Amino acid sequence: MNFSSNYNGSATEDWDAFRQHVLQLFQGLSASQQNDSTIADWVQSNLIPLCATNPHNYLMIMTILTNLSQDPQLHSRGHQLKRIAQELEHQLLPAVALHSGNAENAKYLNDSIKYADTDLMESLVGLTKDKSLSSGDVLKVYKGIENGDLDVRHLRTPNIMDSLIRAIFYPHRPATTLDEKLWVLAYAASAPLISSNTTNTATRRENVKSPEVIETHETLKQLDALLQRVTSMIGMEAVIEGLLSCIKLPVASLCFLHYFQTSLLNPDFYEWSRFREETPQAFHLLDEIAILHPLLHPQLVSFYVSLLTTSFTNLSPVMVLEVKHALIPFLVTFVKLGYFPLLARLAEMGEADLETSVLQEMFENILDMVVPPYPTAFAWGMVKLLVALEQRGAELREHPLADKVRTFASKLPSPSPECPFETFTQAEWSEIERIQTTYIRT
């Protein structure tokens, strides 16, 4: 079965584009094509690739088909629409099982088929729209959770959770449907997964009251109350102990990070010229999040990279450079914690965003911190940084950096039983060989 498709969109990413795509697919099916085998082939080619890996897509296609069947202008195609829906339901479970090999996921999709409320699913998609979520969508989803009509797997997607966080955790947010949003976010983040063999809505209603959901809801309420008291970096320092308690939960850490990021570049919140003199405690709070929650490293690194690329229009170029140098210890923390993808991201940044002096100091600090033998991911990431410095014309053979580069090059891996040839590509081994020749053997 072929799962490839020219369109790889998701209903939860862009509902309008997804709906338009499905309608175009339907328009390409002639009204005269009523034959069962023709419809089966059409569903397999056009709809199954959209649904096999994404239950939200399936549910929204069923919503679209229901709406089309109620259109008086399409009355003559009622049977065709009914057969499409039946065929999609029939083909979906084998397709999911073949694609993922996950019987549990297939069973979950089957439950979605039986118990889906199309209005509720449309509101679920509505949660992905923008910061000002529709109160109607929020309330409908909240009621759906209360009534046991929504499995947590419907909500535990990055798009929906990010949208809820954006709608709640920003300065001076409105109080409209606040508690419902907090509860939906708490449920999405922490409700235990119920076995797909359980279809009883009473069991789902009990799940809403689980200790995990209640604790998360209380923590998010506490975090929101603390942050709404904060109007400046000094104000944030005053509630740092409370924040430290909240960030023990991963979802609360994400909420804090979003609030911090939206506030930080507001000159009324923080004067960046002070950063070179004293680092605010809030940045050490981000270090604590990095230690507590390794899965959040990509989001934290993206935050720091966004700071490096920010145009601080109210600061002089010299002061901007000092701020970037002051951020180095926070970035090095991620390497210390084993998050090596950071190295490739830094190497790919242009000099306009990351000055050579900053990159070189970061390279040197990391070499001082990590001792051989080097993990392969670290070694290749540092090779990329070294190449980036070479391309910028950095003086890498000047004392004292020359000794550090020479030591690094001498400790790079060579093909061996401990580091098989397939660890790196031929091109990567060639680059390692070039570096060793350049800095050791000349």
Description:
- There is one protein chain.
- By secondary structure, this protein is mostly helical.
- It contains 24 helices and no strands.
- Helix 5 (78-100) packs antiparallel against helix 6 (103-115) and helix 23 (401-410) packs across helix 24.
Radius of gyration: 27 Å
Secondary-structure element series: HHHHHHHHHHHHHHHHHHHHHHHH
User: Residue share in helices?
Assistant: 55-70%
Q: Which of globular, elongated, flat, extended, rod-shaped describes the shape?
A: globular
Number of strands: 0
**Whole-number average pLDDT?**
84
Number of helices: 24
Contiguous runs where pLDDT drops below 50 for at least 5 residues:
1-5
Strand content: under 5%
Ordered list of secondary-structure elements with their pairings:
Layout: H1 15-27, H2 36-46, H3 48-51, H4 55-69, H5 78-100, H6 103-115, H7 118-126, H8 135-146, H9 152-155, H10 158-168, H11 178-190, H12 201-208, H13 211-228, H14 233-238, H15 240-246, H16 250-264, H17 281-292, H18 297-308, H19 317-336, H20 341-348, H21 356-369, H22 376-391, H23 401-410, H24 426-439
Helix pairs in contact: 1-4, 2-5, 4-5, 4-7, 5-6, 7-8, 8-11, 10-11, 11-13, 13-16, 16-17, 18-19, 19-21, 20-22, 21-22, 23-24
Short description:
With 442 residues, the protein is mostly helical. 65% of the residues lie in helices and 0% in strands. It has 24 helices and no strands.
Q: Which key terms come to mind for this protein?
A:
0% strand, 442 residues, mainly alpha
